[in-house]
Amino acid sequence: MAIKKNYRADNTYLISTDTTDNPKLGAKVLNDGRESLFLDFYFGYSKVFNEKTGKETIKKNRRREYLSLYLWQAPRTQLERQQNKELLEIAKKIRFEREQELKEDKLGYRLKKEEVEINYLDFMAEYHASYTKKDANQIRRARTVFIDFLIDPKGKLLPGKITGSMAKEEKEAIRQSNAKKEAQRERKAQGLVVRPQHLTKDLMKAFTEYLINRFTGEGAHTVYGRFKKMILAALDKDIIAKNPCRGVSIKKDYGQLKKEILSQEEIVLLANTHYEKENPDIHRAFIFCLYCGLRWCDVKDLTYANVDYSNKLLKFEQSKTKAHSAASGVVIPLNDGLLHLIGQPKDGNRNQIIFPLPSHTMCLKALRHWVARAGIEKHITWHCARHSCGTNLLSNGANIKTVASILGHSGLSHTEKYTRAVDSLKQAAIDSMPPLNL
């Protein structure tokens, strides 16, 4: 039965229908389309002396307690109506307990953990906020991708329990505006409720399938690895009882190169392509990565102190494997062209950054615009420079051990995927010849 909402001057209304209820359950309308549930306690009357009038007045003694529980003001779907129903039942239980304590004159009530269950998405956000390691962005990404999976109609395995708050029109607006995508996703996250008991093995299997279909290369494996990291943290804090990811894995294929690569002709084309208001540092840094195979996280931190000008060498520690691998230190020989790209430090300060780059997002946007202006119809990311370098070195006759050393691989298994890419390039070259009609 729908609640009759008799709004009062302070934009609140009472949900309690029994006049003897103390405390009374009510709700305050918020500006974001939600209603905040509260309890109003009544402690009788008291006399208050008014100094201005010199008379005593009667004052009602009241206290309001907000429950940090929120209803949808105008639920649009069956899922939102179901969520309102569940939250109201919780609020009514709290009201009843408060009333019993008031009658028994007890204080210091605290809501039991089992009465208001944890939203696992909130835990993920808190985990990321307190995370201090270098892969913090990957932790955040794992959470946003998990939210995307839940929003995806194919991902909703628990209708009525995992709920969304956005209408179809709003979802369409999200697709049309990349600038608003992150903010809109967070709005959706506020409307999603994922209880610990919803994290089942079936849900994990569906999530891994979603990741494999969405990402190329090692993206699916990376995202799932960070997601499992948060699952283990929830296990340690007794938020979930068992690991739903156990037995559900994404195998990393070291033998296959899935990213796009740039041919040597396309690299020359890209290097010679310029446009108005281009960022010269992004231009220099990406070309440098194409020739030396550096990751974005490494090239952005290079200083002139990493360059041995007299011996024409670049020496640095890989961020990804620093303190974790004996092969984290890399030494790359430089030619005159690469030294020209690097240039000389201003005022002789060797601690200056060689390539002062903006954020990774801004670099990707600039790169995509640059590739399009060059007329290259490939999906090129910054990491494609590393793959392109490895593949082109092998195709030019370098042996696999040399390439592994330049790329800073700890073993040859990482480098072997480039040999398969070289074979496919050879096949493509043969296939490009005119057909034989014998």
UniProtKB/TrEMBL annotation:
The keyword Manganese appears for this protein: no
Coiled-coil ranges per UniProt: none
Gene3D superfamilies, per the entry: Intergrase catalytic core
Xref: SUPFAM superfamilies: DNA breaking-rejoining enzymes
All copies of domain Tyr recombinase, residue ranges: 257-432
InterPro entries in alphabetical order: DNA_brk_join_enz (IPR011010), Integrase-like_cat_sf (IPR013762), Integrase_catalytic (IPR002104), Tyrosine_recombinase_XerCD (IPR050090)
UniProt keyword Disulfide bond present: no
CDD domains according to UniProt: INTN1_C_like (cd01185)
Pfam families: Phage_integrase
GO molecular function terms attached to this record: DNA binding
GO process annotations (BP): DNA integration; DNA recombination
Entry keyword set: DNA recombination
Entries under PANTHER family matching the protein: PHAGE INTEGRASE-RELATED, PROPHAGE INTEGRASE INTD-RELATED
Name this protein carries in UniProt: Site-specific integrase
Organism: Muribaculum gordoncarteri
